[in-house]
Amino acid sequence: MKKLDKLNTSQSKKLFNKKKSIPIKSSTLKLIFPYYSKLICGKKEKLYLILGIIKSASEITILNNTAIIRVNFIAHQFGPKPGQQWIIKFPKLYQELSLNYNLYIPKSFDFNKEGKLPGLAGGKPLGGGDIPTGYNGWSSRMMFLKGGKLCVYLYHYKMKTEFGRMLLLHKSNSKPYLLQKDSWINIKQSIRLNSINNSDGKVIIYINNKQMLKVDNICFRKTEKLNIDKLIFSCFIGGDKIGSGPDNQTFLCFNNFQLSQDHRSFEK
Questions:
Q1: Mean pLDDT on 223-234
Q2: Which positions ≥6 away from 45 have C-beta within 8 Å?
Q3: pLDDT at 11 over 60
Q4: CA distance 193 to 157
Q5: Residues 6+ apart with CB under 8 A from 210
Q6: Hey, how many other C-beta atoms are within 10 angstroms of the C-beta on 74?
Q7: What are the Cα distances from residue 251, in Å, to 21, 59, 83?
């Protein structure tokens, strides 16, 4: 398993220099991730972040002597804000890959709205109503739902929904899995792309090493030019509708992003 971030190296801790936190901007991403990284936001927003005219919605901070990524949400603001979305492009192309990360949800977090969580992608990281053609790209993010339910949120060729396709996670007793508050949760997403002209792609989700979802009939692509080539960090609440934002100010925390190629993940 290969660690993707450098949050807890001596290099990242030197960034603090007695500061309690560091806002995440393009320059920060380059220091904490070893691969090419890019904020997903408008040119004007990127400039305003650099100049300090607006504040990044995410920061690196210390929790229990561990460096973490903290994403902040302002009450009643919905949709992605500057600092809540970025991509990490991998130096290699993969046909199958697993992404691990840890998620912390505070006690005060209210699951009365829906929101996005990180995942894997290839080509253009599709979202926001993009139409997958089989040639332009695909994405597989996680998404939390009302009541704390969790699903994988897919954009793939042949999907039948206008926006992303949601696949709900279930426990072994067939009851929906519910996210736990005030504890670290390990999320593992394993993707195997389909062979060309076949719907045999796989998505498997593990929570704290327990399998909660397995789907093996997905058509991600129509060309071998599409691979698994990036992480898409996407963490925001609500979409494009007024009232879809959080009722109160809150946050989520992340750390320990890792990549692995474990063939056994697909054989279980």
A1: 96
A2: 54, 82
A3: no
A4: 12
A5: 172
A6: 14
A7: 14, 11, 13
Domain that holds residue 198: 2-266
Q: How far apart are CA 109 and CA 119, in angstroms?
A: 21
CB within 8 Å of 161: residues ≥ 6 apart:
none
Measuring CA to CA, how many Å separate 136 from each of 124, 157, 232, 233? 6, 9, 16, 19
CB atoms < 10 A from the CB of 75, how many?
A: 10
What CATH number is associated with residue 135? 2.60.120.200
Question: Is the pLDDT at 198 greater than 80, yes or no?
Answer: yes
Residues 262, 98 contacting (CB under 8 angstroms): yes
Q: Provide the whole-model pTM.
A: 0.92
The count of structural domains within the chain is 1
In whole angstroms, give the CA distance from residue 253 to residue 233.
12
Share of the chain residues as helix, strand and coil, in percent rounded to the nearest 5: 10, 45, 45
Cβ atoms of 70 and 55 within 8 Å: the answer is: no
Cβ(235)–Cβ(85) below 8 Å: yes
Q: Please give the full DSSP string across 132-161, using - where no structure is assigned.
A: --SSSEEEEEEEE-GGGBEEEEEE-TT--S
Residues 241 and 15: their CA atoms lie apart, in Å, by 37
For 73-135, the DSSP string reads E-TT--S--TTSEEEEEEEEEESEEEEEEEEE--TT--TTS-EEEEEEEEES---TT----SS
